[in-house]
Amino acid sequence: MKSIRTALLLGLATTALTQTAHAQQAPATDTAPGDIVVTAQKRAERLQDVPLAVTALSAQALATRNITDTTSLGQISPSLTYTQGTNPNNSNFRIRGIGTAVFGVGNESSVSVVMDGVVMARAAQGFSDLADIERIEVLRGPQGTLFGKNATGGAINVVTARPTSELSGKVNATIAEKGEYHLNGTVSGPLSEHVRLRLSGYYNKDDGYIYNVARKAKTNGGEGYGLRGKLEVDIGRLNLLAGFNYGHNQSQCCQTVAIRTDNANLALLQAPVIAGPLNMQVNSNLDTVTLTTQQTYSLEAKLDLGALSLTSISAYQKYKFYNNQDVDAINTDVPIYSGGTAAPAYAQFDVNGGGYQLDNFSQELRLSNAKKGRLNYVGGLYFSDLTIDRDFTRRIVTCSAPASSGLAIGAPCPAANVVGSSGASLAHLRSYQYAGFGQVDYNLVGGLKAIGGMRWQHEYISVYGFQYPNAPFAGDSLNVPVTRGFTAASDEVLTGKAGLQYEFNRNAQAYATYTRGYKGQSLGTEYNQTFNNNAVVRPETVNAFEVGFKGTTIDRKLSIAVSAFIAKYKDLQVQANKSDQSTGNFLFTVTNAGAATTKGVEIELTLRPVDGLSINSSLAYTHARFDADGLACPLQNQASFATIAYGATPPTNACYKQYSVNNVLSGANQNVRGGILPNTPEWRFTINPRYERNVGSMIAYVDLAMAYQSSVLFALEQDPLLVQRAYTTFDLSLGARPADKGISVSIFAKNLTDQRFYSAMGHGSELTSQTLTPNNLTAFVPKAASRYFGLSVGYSF
Predict the structure, then answer these.
(1) Span 82-98, pLDDT tens digits
(2) Does pTM surpass 0.85?
(3) Which residues contact 611 (CB under 8 A, 6 or more apart)?
(4) Would you call 71 helix, strand, or coil by DSSP?
(5) For residue 272, is the peptide bond before it cis, meaning its omega torsion is within 30 degrees of 0?
């Protein structure tokens, strides 16, 4: 492995040493005013020419919509959704229904986030602030041929701005209701004839919008800051771009609110908070706390070889994460009597979290033709070396005082009756991969092109982990089995892409493609993992077919992109809930679903009927279904089940328990057939009219955005209680900006109709189990689910 890394680094050195005359940016592409240029295929191309479904937005479009971080990108791409978790590690993106919702760090995401050509090693790194962005590209469907093995659902390609050859800069400040503040600024310019520098920074603060009665303060807010620098140097034909990116975030996020409470004792413990669909309060002694720090250092080298362009991207990324969740979600500053002596009647459940540190080195070396011709190609080598150190601690406290003791609900538990159980785990993950890839398109005849691509890769993954043999809290018993072990696995795979593209003329093309995608094996790293028997989760594979059309009228008054797709997944990697809430055993395991199929149609349309008026709209229909055996039943159904003998065939879509060969009865499971993939609306529709008009030296504008989505199911277990109904939101921006440089100002309103919706739902933990009021429900309520107003002021020079 060291020899591979050395070879790749030598390749970079060779690139630097073989430069000659004058630096040039390559490859050139045939563009005209108004064309959008993207790098969705690892080369600069007009969006119109790219034979795949891509949504691309400029920095100005993001600013107009007040999209300040990646979690808001679902507003602009027709089949991209974001599911909120308690922290970035268990939040996820989905494209066309495909995403990875897991608590562990042993899995990669099915939606890859790429920042300036560097693939983020884990999904949590992708939930970042958008400062000094040039554009964002959302690539829908498998992208593994060029972007690697963790892109079976799609990819989000974030491109930040490069240094400029003239002195320029900008600063922007935003203030919004509920204590939201954003400040960012950039300065860029030449240091000499061949050296340019760009520095940008940001500071964000959100006071929160959920009120915590116990702490007399708002929660679900946070504070973050970051700095990015780029140094660009021309040395003859060689262009070097060195970059660093630092970001730190400290948040009190994210805490659920109670939307339904059936248990009378729980209602007393939540008081004065009253559970309900409109509840925006909690009563807990601790906030959910998340701390993240991201560092990325990269060096991009481009060598102009005349007809060829050689590119090297070397990168190192370090990511630190810490999170703790107050699981009982009530005021348990000291252990209390909650009405029972064992789980789920918790006296205190305030310690449930830990951290991890990620270190990743990656190297990509690729060669492409510099100018568009009959034969266009890109090919290269890729290497990645990743380590993650993961720790976790959990403590559960119950009160053994019997009901006859006369303690009131919520009263402090006598010290003699406090029963604590705790545990801690540590895991070390090592993973590396090396790959070779290439993609070509060849003009067969007229406007007909053949497309072909392949990627061969080898990957290795290992985990060494253990649970500590002693409880971390004095006097506690252990609440986790003690195991210790090392597991390793490796795999090799060949994937690829094939298709045809027909260009009717410069402004119209149709395409049909087949893609074979792959996401690598994974291993468990979490608290309840049996490290001496760490089952390898099989790779996730997909066969995807897509046909599409892109066209623009000569006068640019109408642009349209249509795509139809069907993708068949095998061994889809999912997280199964194996918890037994009646005993306080919280267990989530990553497993393979039998199969999944997503199919649908996407339409993106832009109308420009008169000068100054543009109307962007999109429509997406997504039918996403899966089959999986052995998933847990919805909590409210687990107490009612069929008992199945060993060897007998279990029912489908019904709750059962089955005897093993050793006459041991399983938990309450179900074999799902035709299940709906989580947080995947069948229908989504957006329309975004925008009108601009010159007013003196300024351009005044009004921008209205409407978004509709049909109902979604939040649980893989097909829980009918965890459904978000269809809803529609409206956002409005009014502003003025300079034609070139100067002062800009805008006012905006989010969710004009004050439409309430949830970004995730679940069952509670306190006094909630399959046998005790299972219908206590909680939900994540995003800030965008309430109406609020804001003001942005900027200056550019």
Answers:
(1) 888 888 888 889 999 99
(2) yes
(3) none
(4) helix
(5) yes
